[in-house]
Each structure stands twice: as structure tokens, then as C-alpha cells.
Amino acid sequence: MNHATRTLTTAMSERYTLPTYRLRVLDGPSAGTECVFDRRLVYLGSAPDNDLVLDDAAASRSHLKIEGERQGYRIRDLNSKNGTWLAGSRVVEVVLTGDTILRVGQTQIAFELLEEVHEVALSREPRFGALLGGSPEMREIFALLARVAATDVTVLVQGESGTGKELVAEALHSHSRRASGPLVVFDCSAVQHNLVESELFGHIRGAFTGAVATRAGAMSEADGGTLFLDEIGELDLDLQPKLLRALEKHEVRPVGGNERRRVDVRIVAATNRDLAAMVRDGTFREDLYYRLNVIKVALPPLRRRPEDIPLLVHHFLAEAQAKAPEGRQMTVGFETMRQLQAHNWPGNVRELRNNVTRATVLSSGKELEMRLDTNPLQTQATSPGDGLAVRYDLPFKDAKSRLIEEFERAYWARALEAHGWNISAAARASGLHRKSLEYVVRKLDLQRPT
């Protein structure tokens, strides 16, 4: 079988084809697991955000990545603790052009090329709208966005807080035929539950206490343009069928009214939650999920694209200096940039931007001075025993996400301990599906004390 890649070129992007491949876990704790991949980039490790999750204590959380190139598939070890092994030798980086067997921790994995091929498209530009990045991960996203922007197809953007989900919506809108129309942002997490329906669909005068005037909702305001539904995973279950009906019928009925109004709206939704897991858990409607998930854009966390950090730092530095006293020009030293690229950036691009802006103001010389605080300012909450902390040094959404994760960790650690770390029993007692709790345990890396 000839697995040579075929290169295609266009004015805006470079394209090539790669063979689809299968990963089969031959032995180890995850023996029998099998996945077929038809995409350019795949991550392996024990953390739940990997594409192939290994239930192997000897595997690192982010162990290795498989990245498709014209020459074949490049295996890169991600500084794992026990290494990646091929044919008895530890490898840091190697290009695979045929079938082989890898060892990761205590796990052996068969890498098998298949007959089917898939196309890879990478933008030639290191930006799309306000999104920046020269890494293959981002240029692949830019190529996808360029193709999708000209259509009215619904887009679901997934990514951690601070990765730029709203920037995706802005870029899609500005590059679409709707650019002259409105872009309306509706944050499902920022509106009180009893007001969401009114804010989204509108209401007539007298519909409820306080409704002193008729008001158009977000969907009507976005007529002829784009509606960005941020934090869609926070939308209450009882409102989801009403949103689904509005999307399918292209019409809305305001609260308290009888007449329906036609709307012409392009939908871009975003979430930092796993909607597929929520569907399994019964907290997100499956039909709405598939209605939103027509085109998925998965934004990578900043820690997975450190090669983009110099570009981002210089861009943010230029922005900050434009607002600084005239004539002040700053540079970024090699060691500072190295530290920035090695940092984990839990707040992603938003956190990086805030750090650069703050450092520009506080640095006294001509070189940017940055101190990455591993123990940021915290105020302890009053919940006894849980030790939950509010991060006041982060933007609201980042601080909220961190607090929720701490709560989940404390809650599930205590629930599992109370049931002898029996996942089925803990799930039943907590009203959660076993599969959903298994996902939570992997996501939070919860381990039974030894």
C-alpha cells in the first residue's frame, strides 16, 4: 500500500492527504481499547482530555502526541516520566511511515495505517480575525474557519476558559456575508434562571412583574446577523427544548405573547464543558447537542502550543506599549521567553495577555520583567473543611471555572471515600450516571489513597 502523501495548494492554504490510522492497545490496564483517527493531531496520556486515554499509572498525563506531516506521522514524547519506546529504544521524536508497536508506560500500542485517507488543510497566514498563532494546530483551525465563515452552518466552539472562543465568533461573523449585520453575544451563565427565556426570546409588556415595556430578545436583536451563545452548557434543561424549537423553526415567540416572529440568525455556540458527557448524564438534550454540533472547532489550550507564545507576547506587548508613555520601547529577553513557554497557563491566552499588560506597566527598564507567581493571591471561602478558594487575580470566568473544579474535586473525593471508592455506589448516591462519574474521576485525576 502506498502511503505517500499528496500535496495540494491554494492561494489561502496548503493541503495534503494522510492515511487514516488505528491505535490498538495490546496489553496493559487499557488492553482491548481501539480507536481509529482521521485527523492530523492526536494526544495520548492518562489525563481525560487526551484523544486516547490510558488507564496506566506509569503513563504521564500528557505522554506523547502523534502529528501528521507530509512525510508521515511524527511521534513526539512530551517529556514523559517513563518515556516512549519503539523497537526497544527510547525515542524523543520519530517519523512513522508504516505499522509499528509503541510502548507507553506499561502499555503496548499497535500503530496501524489504513487504506482510507483524509485531507489536511493549513492556513498560510498566522492569524484569522483577532486570533493569532503560527503553530500547525492554529493554522489548521484558521483554514477550517475560512471555509466555514462563508456559510450559515452552525458552529460549536469548545475549549478551556481563555482560549479565545468569543474571538472565533467575531472572526466568523466579520468574514461572513452577515458582517454588516449585528453580532449579539448571549452568555447563558450570566443571566438569572428566571430571566433567561425573556432575555433570549423577548417579552411583551405585562408578561411578568417588572415587564413595564415590550422588549426584543437576543435572537430578534441578532436578526440578519450572528448570535453567539456563550457557555451553552450552562443553559437549564427546561429551556433547551425551547431553544431547539427556535433554531429549527427559525422563529421566536416572546414571553407572554401569542405571535411568532421569523428570525434569520447564524448560530455560534461555545462551551468549556464536555457536552457529550452531559448528554450521557441527562443534563443536556441529545437533539440540541446534534443541532449545535454541525461543525466543531476545538481550541487547544495554550500549554499545547508553546511555539505560539513568542508571537502572542510580542503582539500583546505592542498593544500595551501603544498605550504607554510615548517613546518607551521594551524587549523580551531569552530567559523570560523561555519561562513563558514553559509555564502551564491555566488561564490560557487571556492569562498571558493580562500578565504581559501588567508587566509592561510595572517593568522599570527596557526589558520586560515578568514574575510568574505560582502562589497567587487567594481569599479562603468559609466552607468548613473544603478549603475552597476564590482567585481574585483572575478574570471572572477563569476564577469561576477554577472554583467549580475545586468544588468538584472536594465533592467527589468525599463521595468516593464515603462509598469505599466504589464508583457505582457513589454515582447512585449522588444521582449521576456511572459513566459520567468515571469521566469526572479521569478528568480530575482522582486516585484512591494508598
Structural commentary:
The protein has helices spanning 136-149, 165-174, 196-201, 218-221, 240-249, 275-281, 286-292, 309-322, 334-342, 348-362, 396-418, 423-430, 434-444, and strands spanning 7-9, 13-27, 34-37, 41-45, 52-53, 64-69, 72-77, 84-86, 89-91, 93-96, 100-104, 107-123, 127-128, 131-132, 155-158, 183-187, 202-203, 215-216, 226-230, 251-252, 261-262, 266-271, 295-298, 379-380, 389-390. It is an alpha+beta fold. Strands 1, 2, 3, 8, 9, 11 and 12 form a seven-stranded antiparallel β-sheet that branches. A five-stranded mixed β-sheet has the order 5-4-6-7-10, with no helix packed on it. Helix 8 packs across helix 10 and helix 11 crosses helix 12.
Compute the average pLDDT.
86
How many distinct helices?
Answer: 13
Q: Kindly state the number of beta strands.
A: 25
Sheet of most strands: 7 strands, antiparallel
Give the N-terminus to C-terminus distance in angstroms. Answer: 49 Å
Q: Compute the CA-based radius of gyration.
A: 24 Å
Unreliable stretches, pLDDT < 50, 5 or more residues?
1-10, 374-385
**Oligomer type:** single chain
The secondary-structure class comes to: alpha+beta
- Indicate the proportion of strand residues: 25-35%
The outline comes out as globular
Helix amount: 25-40%
